[in-house]
Every structure is written in structure tokens, then in C-alpha cells.
Amino acid sequence: MHVFYTPDIASDLYTLNEEESRHCSKVLRLIKGDIIHLIDGKGGFYKAEITEVGKKNVQLQVLETQLEYGKRNHHLHIAIAPTKNIDRLEWFLEKATEIGIDEITPIICDRSERKIVKEDRLEKVITSAVKQSLTAYHPKLNPTITYQNFIKQNLQGNKMIAHCMEGDKVPISKNAATQQSYTILIGPEGDFSPEELHIALQNGYKPVTLGNTRLRTETAALAACFEVNYINR
Amino acid sequence: MHVFYTPDIASDLYTLNEEESRHCSKVLRLIKGDIIHLIDGKGGFYKAEITEVGKKNVQLQVLETQLEYGKRNHHLHIAIAPTKNIDRLEWFLEKATEIGIDEITPIICDRSERKIVKEDRLEKVITSAVKQSLTAYHPKLNPTITYQNFIKQNLQGNKMIAHCMEGDKVPISKNAATQQSYTILIGPEGDFSPEELHIALQNGYKPVTLGNTRLRTETAALAACFEVNYINR
């Protein structure tokens, strides 16, 4: 099945942009009459027929439309410190998109060695995972902000922080009901600082454990993602 | 904390092999009197003091020994078709080791594009994840075998197959009790063949679902690993 990402689709007639058109005609060598599928990233899943093949503009006629395709019953937002090796963050984005996530925010923490991320590149990773896993909802990647500014946003719903320091922690499943909104903080290599933990607790974030083993940043984030999706199955 | 992998440790006196000795003295620049930790891969976790530093042989005196460190309450064996891009299999091995797995067998399936894996390289990936995540039990990597030969082994315990074909499937958690032995089959890109599924069912493997989204081979394997560890927490 050939899937294209068409966030700006607005009617039954659609023209692929230059890049997608070239991919469609030159790489996939699709021709007039071939059937492809479209995902708009907002829950729309479309079956379309190629009506005209130009090098730079492939025209389509939408045949079938499914809205709210694979609609999720909860909202998961993970705020994660970018990993030193950016491949690990990209890997997390790909896997989280496959398993199910709604929103991601890179947060710069006291102990973050990486303070800059190329959001456009991360966006591409998410989009290709969306196409590959047939996820009609495109996870939202927020701009990178500091930990302090993230906490200040005073978000609603279940707020949790996964840290490695001593103290009482409960599993996510014991901490949060199902079909709700969840925000989970994942720290950098070297963990959050005690001050960061203190601020989180003050702002209503509950400390959670992700199991007994020592997990890397990206593994911890994916473990949280898995657990939230699991309890909402 | 500096952790060394010492599978052959047998007494309170131990000498690191040439490679580890060089790493200890040249890279980490540790000296006589420094404290390091050892993992033997069989559940032994040791605290040791450096008593002698040679370029090729660093000698240690074990100060504390913990046996059955982080002993697991179940046995998880995942048989997975090697991915076309071997990085994806290596990534799975690292993550599964962090989260918890006991045995891995690469299986060559009808639709496997990759039919050869370098086990020594995969072994290195597992060992470095063992050290990084302080897992005192080293997961066992079995030699690569064909799907047919794997099924013929007639293993005991909970046997499951994760496939994408039509048919009744239940989640792992609904399929298996806790604290048991689990064997889970994960297919290649393009899934198992209908014949392979048929043979599995004939041999007592139950079909399981890992959720509603379309997962890559390595993501499916990790999702299974997450779920088994989760229900055994």
C-alpha cells in the first residue's frame, strides 16, 4: 500500500506537492488509474485514484474518505530531554509514533548536554513513521523549551515525572485513571536535578517508576508511552 | 559507577582480561585502590577494589558479593526474524536487555530478506546494554535457526505468535498467567507466511495482538517484551 502525507487536503480533488509527485511518478513509477492512500495527520484516511501524472504535479481523485481513523481514547504528551546522541531521540519519536503518542516537547534540563535540536529533522522522522504505521493522527512536536518554562505552563490532566532519585514512586497505572490526558516528564542522561524534581512536585507532578531496571532516557520515554497506551487499550 | 563484565569470575581474586584491563587503566585511568563493580551475567553483582594495575592485567580483590541480583520472576524468550537493516535488530537487543529479557533466538522465515546475522556482534550489543543497565543476568543469544527448526523444538510454557493476518487474537496479558515461561514469535517485514502461522498453531502457539497500530518487526518485539515484563511486575 502506497501512503502519502497530505496535511492540506481540502476536497475530493488533490494535487501532490512537487516532492511527493516526484516520489510517486519517478520512484514508485505509479501511473494514471493507480490507487494510493492519503493521510492528513488529523485523523483523515483517504483512498484516491491517480487521474493525471506530471513530473511535478500528480493529480488525484479521492474515492473514499474515513474521518477519525484510529481515533485515540486518551491524550499522551511526553516532555523529554533531548539525548546527547540525537539518534536516540529520533528513535524514540519513530517508536512512540508507531505505538501511539499525541504530543512531544523537547525540554532543556539542568543536566542536558544537548541544548539544541533540529525540529524540522525530528518532524520528518515523525512523518515517515506516521506513513509507515498508518497513523492518521500526526503527533504534534512542540518547540524546544527550558524545563522551567515547560513547568510554568501549568498543564491540566495527569502530570507525572519519571526520575531515578530516592523517594516514593508508583507505576503510571496506579497513578492515573484511563481515557484521560497525561503529561510525563523524562529527564536527560544523569537524571533531573533535585531542584527540578522539587519544582515538579510543587506543580502537581507525581513521581512515577517505570520498573526496576535502569533505563536510558529514550527507553524510559518509550516505556512510559507503552504503559499509557497499554492501560488505555 | 564503573562496571565490568566478568563472566568467568570464580573467586575473590580476579584479573581483568587484556581488553578490559586496557580500558580500566588507559581509558578510565583508574588506579590502585579504586573501587569498581563487576557483573558475571549469571546474577552475580560484585564490588571490587583494584589491587594492582598492569597495562594488560588489572588485578582485583572482591569486597562484596550479591548473588541473584535483580533475579527475574519469569522467563521470556523471543524468537525474532532478523530485520533487513540489522541496526533495528541490534536496537531491539539493547532495549530488550534494558527492560528485561532472558533468551533471544534469531529465526529465518519464509519472507526473511536477511538470512545471515553476525552473532558475535549482536552478543557485544547485549553485553554493553547489560553493563549500562546494571543487569546482572546476561540474556542468552541462541544461534540463528530456521523457523521450521525452531518450532520443532517443542518448547514448554506459554507459546505465542504475533502476526498481522486476519483471525482471532488476544493480548498477551489475556493469554498468559504471570510468573511463567513465555516464548513469543515475531515475524519479518512482510509478516509470517500463512503456512508458518498454520504450523505454529498446530504446535500450540496462540495468536496474540500487540495493539491496534501497525508495528515494525523490532517495535513489535519490544512491545511484547514490555507487556510480559509489565504483567510480571
From TrEMBL, chains A, B:
<dbReference type="InterPro" id="IPR006700">
    <property type="entry name" value="RsmE"/>
</dbReference>
<dbReference type="InterPro" id="IPR046886">
    <property type="entry name" value="RsmE_MTase_dom"/>
</dbReference>
<protein>
    <recommendedName>
        <fullName>Ribosomal RNA small subunit methyltransferase E</fullName>
        <ecNumber>2.1.1.193</ecNumber>
    </recommendedName>
</protein>
<keyword id="KW-0963">Cytoplasm</keyword>
<comment type="similarity">
    <text>Belongs to the RNA methyltransferase RsmE family.</text>
</comment>
<dbReference type="Pfam" id="PF20260">
    <property type="entry name" value="PUA_4"/>
</dbReference>
<keyword id="KW-0949">S-adenosyl-L-methionine</keyword>
<dbReference type="InterPro" id="IPR046887">
    <property type="entry name" value="RsmE_PUA-like"/>
</dbReference>
<keyword id="KW-0698">rRNA processing</keyword>
<feature type="domain" description="Ribosomal RNA small subunit methyltransferase E methyltransferase">
    <location>
        <begin position="74"/>
        <end position="225"/>
    </location>
</feature>
<feature type="domain" description="Ribosomal RNA small subunit methyltransferase E PUA-like">
    <location>
        <begin position="16"/>
        <end position="63"/>
    </location>
</feature>
<dbReference type="InterPro" id="IPR029026">
    <property type="entry name" value="tRNA_m1G_MTases_N"/>
</dbReference>
<dbReference type="GO" id="GO:0005737">
    <property type="term" value="C:cytoplasm"/>
</dbReference>
<comment type="function">
    <text>Specifically methylates the N3 position of the uracil ring of uridine 1498 (m3U1498) in 16S rRNA. Acts on the fully assembled 30S ribosomal subunit.</text>
</comment>
<dbReference type="GO" id="GO:0070475">
    <property type="term" value="P:rRNA base methylation"/>
</dbReference>
<keyword id="KW-0808">Transferase</keyword>
<keyword id="KW-0489">Methyltransferase</keyword>
<dbReference type="InterPro" id="IPR015947">
    <property type="entry name" value="PUA-like_sf"/>
</dbReference>
<dbReference type="Pfam" id="PF04452">
    <property type="entry name" value="Methyltrans_RNA"/>
</dbReference>
<dbReference type="InterPro" id="IPR029028">
    <property type="entry name" value="Alpha/beta_knot_MTases"/>
</dbReference>
<dbReference type="GO" id="GO:0070042">
    <property type="term" value="F:rRNA (uridine-N3-)-methyltransferase activity"/>
</dbReference>
